Fold these 3 entries.
Entry 1:
Amino acid sequence: MTRMKKRLLYRGPSCPHLGRRHPGPRGGARTGRWLAPTGQGTGCGKPSLFSVESLIGRGAAVDRQGVVSEVDRGRLYRTEGLILHRTDFGEADRLLAVYTPRYGLLRLLAKGARKPTSRKAGHVEPFTCVSLLVARGRNLDIVSQVEMLEPFRRLRENLELASLSYYVAELITGFTEEGDSNPPLFDLTVATLSRLCGARDPTLALRFFELRALGLLGYQPQLFLCITCQAQLEPVANYFYPAAGGVLCPRHGEGFPDAVPLALPTFKVLRYMQTHPWDQVGALRIRPETHLDLESVLQSFIVYQLERRLRSVDFIHRLRREAKV
Ligand SMILES: [Zn+2]
């Protein structure tokens, strides 16, 4: 690839600078254009996160002249995706919920995927990371080809890990829609499934995912300044108040009946997770009571933002109770 081609950047309706809600594959990719960085584009004026090379990495087809080929502009589009859910559809098909970096959450039809002879069957299991070639359909887009990138097999073989993975999937489906382009959140989700497979403390990987995902979705809890007085929060017993968006100092927390006392170890771990990479967070050793407290605090924040409970949380709790018996 020449230097000129490397400098081409994508500007268009699926540009991540245009905000959370913008058209998915039905509108965005078809009308997006390839422009040089200095061109008068339809985008926001900032260079997009998507260079040609990063798009190639994400599966977009780029021809020898360095422009998006028919695959991305026409009836077909290619995308990386995580299979979050699958349900039976018709006699032999499956309906898939697929999370993608550029197009958000897609509902795709995998025709014939339940036939024993289908080559798609093993590739459209929950929590597999795949490369998809998708054909636009009148009602539903259809999986034309699927290639396995990462099977994450362990997540389906271990019941506890499966329950944690379903929670990740439920969180993504709860917070995202078709058209929600968010490559960093996609990368975090894939990394989290990988961490669940191999981490010493998978529950900590889940807490890290929750906190970082909230930030990437625009709901980052405030953990450093009191929400009321904006004073730096001291390492003391502060208060957590989901409705206000984070933590209150002791003086102001006492004034809100719904604000809950935040134990100091929990507060410290939350701040550490918000400011340190997983390599360092994953090395922490968390006491069981702090773990329960972290879960409770983050869950209260998520339930407040989503305005509903997540079903997989009840399942995780049931498994935990049964494991103790
Ligand atoms: Zn205050």
Entry 2:
Amino acid sequence: MMQDVHQLRCTGCARVIALDALKENLRCPECGDLYEVEYPAWSVQSAADSATRPVKRNLPNPSALRWLWKERRTSTELKDQSGVWRFRDLLPILADESNIISLREGNTPLYELPRCAQATGVERLYAKHQGMNPTGSFKDAGMTAALSVAHERGFEWVACASTGNTSAAMAAYAARAGMRSLVLIPEGKIAWGKLSQALDYGALTCQLRTDFDGCVRVLSEVVRRAPVYLLNSVNPYRIEGQKTPALEIAEQLDWQVPDHLIVPGGNLANSSALGKAFLEMKHLGLTDRVPRVSIVQAEGANPLYRSMQANGGRELTAVEAHTRASAIRIGNPASWRKAVKVVEATGGWVEQATEAEIALAKAEIGAEGIGCEPASAVTLVGLKKLLAAGRIDPSESVVLLLTGHTLKDSDYTIQYHRGDLLREEELAPLRPEIEITRRNTVELDADPDQVLRALEKAGRQ
Ligand SMILES: *Cc1c(COP(=O)(O)O)cnc(C)c1O
Ligand SMILES: [Zn+2]
């Protein structure tokens, strides 16, 4: 029975609810906070109160799990080929595994970043590239989990408000399941690549005359009045799927966790999920410690950064969000309390990045032959700042979590290289660094001599 395997606990008042009591806006009716999935047999939170509420504890064997997860990579079964469901032992959220809806997400590469390592002085620097997922962002890992739950519970419609990537992922997985999807996006403020995906995968896509936070407000009313299943990251099952990149990172580093993990912060679900995973892995004896998880926001969309500065993360004041990194243009992040707990539990920090810093960092990651979305590049900015502040030592190992694929927002990249992305006053502090990374197109006649002269000139640079 699935009730025995997982339960839902409010992260605010600790109340445990029945699985079918999770309704509508997915928030606790008592305190308004978000729910978290836990597994009475083994999870961290239930260990804390097993003294008062005896449960049969049944901790899985870590070396058997490591072996099993590796073995599954050679299987031809869908649930084994998925980099999310390969780890299903740590996310047993379905009553019946035949309800899995998967696009073979996950199993993303962990790249070395030799040039960025050299430039920053860090010896071991890696990028976990979640942009290499089926729809081009980390959202697929959470979506396969939560949409499979929606499918199992018999919903016809799923819905989300999105800065773009969630809608692309939701629309794709809904299409695979033969379900319908409703997308609310802020008008004129999402990258074309992402919008095109939602249309291609057949979503009912509504552009609302408001920002992301306004879309969230409208959607919470819609789910109250219509039988649609909410797939925003307030959905605790998305968090379960989004744990798996942390398991992959540990596996890819031979179960030696890195010293630091740096994650972009928007709605703050991703950092919450990765922190949950690392804490669970340590608790189960899969790893012997946790990395410090640090979060980086854009300066124009920095409510968590401000909250940490002003009151150590006890209260958060929403801001009106402005940044070209549209995936993290969020002023009122839903999962901020979960994120604060992760930063505290792991000893991480919260940083912010200016528009020029983000643009430069994105070009530097691009020059490694990898590329990423603007929002992902805040992680490299965070690394530079944490090094400068002495919070990361160059001898430590660092993983940057790259959240989205570079082709998601090619307009941004082209504007950068043409020199018309940033305003004068934004550019000024970093002009020389940015100038040497710019690679605009060279317009020539159809003449070999002109191409040879261009080649010679480039060779001298
Ligand atoms: C959604 C998204 C983020 C922000 O993740 P949160 O979980 O909302 O903090 C960052 N980068 C990309 C590319 C995204 O799609
Ligand atoms: Zn509560």
Entry 3:
Amino acid sequence: MWAWFVRNTGVCRPCWAAVECDLSVCLSVRLSVCLSVVMAESGSQPRYHFIIFGASGFTGRFVLEEVARCAGEAREELRWAAAGRSRARLETALTQAAEALGKPELKTEVDIIVADVDDPESLAEMCKQAVIVLNCVGPYRFYGEPVVKACVENGAHCIDISGEPQFLESMQLNYDSQAAEKGVYVVGSCGFDSIPADMGVLYTRDQFKGTLTAVESFLTASMGPEGGCIHDGTWQSAVYGLADSDKLRSLRKKFSHKPLPVVGTRIKRRGALFYSDEIQQYAVPFMGADPSVVKRTQRFLSEEHQESPVQYGAYAGVGGVSSVMKLLFAGLMFFLLVKFSFGRKLLIKFPEFFSFGFFSKEGPTRKQMEGSSFRFAFYGEGYTEGQDPSQGKPNAKIRTLVQGPEAGYVATPIAMVQAAITILNEPDSLPEKGGVYTPGAAFAKTTLIDRLNKHGIQFSVL
Ligand SMILES: NC(=O)c1ccc[n+]([C@@H]2O[C@H](COP(=O)([O-])OP(=O)(O)OC[C@H]3O[C@@H](n4cnc5c(N)ncnc54)[C@H](OP(=O)(O)O)[C@@H]3O)[C@@H](O)[C@H]2O)c1
């Protein structure tokens, strides 16, 4: 019936555009996405719903596995391909995924696209073939922008797992209006950075009966008997990110944002190191992208939807006294070395040494990942219904939890793939126009949290 309608009218019903719609690739009936929107923009037909760019990288290989797993769950065919700069490395990645998942067909049935960040034509060719590019090529400060540009120009939505505020915010500054014109959604930080924190604050707000005005989150990560670590790719992103932190300040001035209004009592900032009664261990302010991503989401929801903004403080558990000593020593070395080119070279060359084994060039083993998990505890406060937040102190509290498997290479692929599936399945629940968005801004009205709950990242009220 649907095929007949399109073939005989030349009109694609979801967008009512008079364009050709190739139903062999358009799964819009079930997946609710109209590939013809993209076709109309780019003049060519996307062959794949997802293209994983950087699928041979450490994280990319786990994203590839997660896509293969989710493609197996889908009722309709999900068409996807693996992309990167080396065909041989992509073949190896597919062989490894085939073995890990017991799906030998991955070796022969998944298409490979060779594309290099340094070759804009190859990126354009890749983007023309995708509804959504899942970009795993980092550090994003070096490799991210050409991918965003190619996606926007060629009509592919783009999501990444960057935890680098400077990259994320400069993409918003430089590509938001162009992406809006093209109807393209660019959603950054869709991994462990920063979906649990950003969606966790929204979940806490939605569960609170009244006006939630402030949330503090406390992150703890645990490892099994095999231990664990983080791959070098994230270490590199952190080293170069901190080296460049001055540029972030000047970048932010270019937005000319007015300060976000403070609703309710102003949240108290904790010290640089303190004992947290909430998680019964020492804690420090969370150094990653989460606070800036959450703030951008709150700004978007406040300015675009007149929602009451929630203040946010993010902290991470360190452990006991011996861990604190290690952190102080490693932190001091890091901040001293990161400011000089020679120091950065040392940090990049010896991640294990300078991080006490927390980062490594090999990354964690599968066994280590199986034993690891994360837990985000959210402590919110606000005003019950009928109470005026401009009068007196908050009179109600809420505690919520977001918890899940190993953060970097299990939770991150789950979050990224579910974010991509959400864009594909729920176009009507995304912001009205395309643009560069945080996860919270893009997915506030979608069922992403339900999807994450079903895939092992659990949101709950305590
Ligand atoms: N949000 C989170 O929580 C989270 C979690 C994990 C990772 N990440 C981020 O993800 C990024 C990747 O980390 P990783 O550990 O997977 O690093 P990685 O193993 O070094 O992967 C980097 C990938 O980039 C590719 N690449 C490099 N230069 C390229 C070019 N010119 N053209 C095309 N591809 C190129 C590499 O290709 P080859 O395979 O051919 O070498 C590789 O696939 C980092 O920015 C990291 O911070 C974020």
